[in-house]
Amino acid sequence: MDLEVRALSEKHNLKISIVDLTESIQEIITLQNTNTHASIALGKFLIANCLIGADLKSGQKIISDINGTGLAGTMIAEFQDKTVRGYIQVPDFSLDEIKENEGSPLSQTVGKIGFLQVSKDIGLKEPYSSKVQIVNGEINIDFMYLLSQSDQVNSLISSLVDINESGRVIKAVGIMIQLLPGHSEEDIEFLEGKLGSLEHLLDTLKKTTVYESLIKDIAEDSKILEVNELKYKCTCNKEKVMSSVKLIGEEELQKIVDKKEEVEVICDFCKLKYNITSEEIKKII
């Protein structure tokens, strides 16, 4: 079962979130038909998006969009009501395109020249959007930079997506630790001393599912605020599809009606096919 755990340490001025998306990411990469490097990149992107949206309330939504002109092209991650979905533009690029001495496979997959944009819809007239240049295509660093620029929050984001030789997800999990406003130099030193190396933290995340205990190990006074189940779910529907069909334009739609043709629309996220008849099109012209 996929889940998120949110906690707060008042003593050390820390907010800690952990998300395990192992099952959801397996569903998503199967739908997207990704190769290994694309699976890892999309998985890390989905985890980071969930981590920064972990405190959203019911009905609120966060969408992240990244394009670093890398091998994978554009990636999109959505998180709403404890459900996730994701899309990758080029899911199965040639693995021969990953070059030695040109950065990590992840940074080559994502790319280093472009932008990361995050949009939060919290029920206001317009979504709140933040956009930054990509730092290095390592995803977690890029999200940490965005948070520092848009929210002025110092954050640590770390994640792993472990894929076996057959392409299945063994574990996909991430953690975000944020220093709260009013934190002291002592809080920073405490956190640095507790975490040690990121490799050790990731190794612990990989081996455990008792995330509440891990949080307590980081800060013994931590209060668990929430533990929620997460799921994959696509939010596409016929109404949204009809709205997209309208964008074809009245003149072109009339031609389709006159010829009694159909329009096929395929959801980028779940690959569901919608066949819109000429009679349905006639109603929206």
UniProtKB/TrEMBL annotation:
GO terms for biological process: protein refolding. Coiled coil: none annotated. The keyword Disulfide bond applies. Pfam families: HSP33. Keywords: Chaperone, Cytoplasm, Disulfide bond, Redox-active center, Stress response, Zinc. It comes from the Bacteria. GO terms for cellular component: cytoplasm. InterPro entries: Heat_shock_Hsp33, Heat_shock_Hsp33_C, Heat_shock_Hsp33_N. The keyword Disulfide bond applies. One of its GO terms (molecular function) is unfolded protein binding. PANTHER family: 33 KDA CHAPERONIN. This is Heat shock protein 33. It comes from Spiroplasma alleghenense.
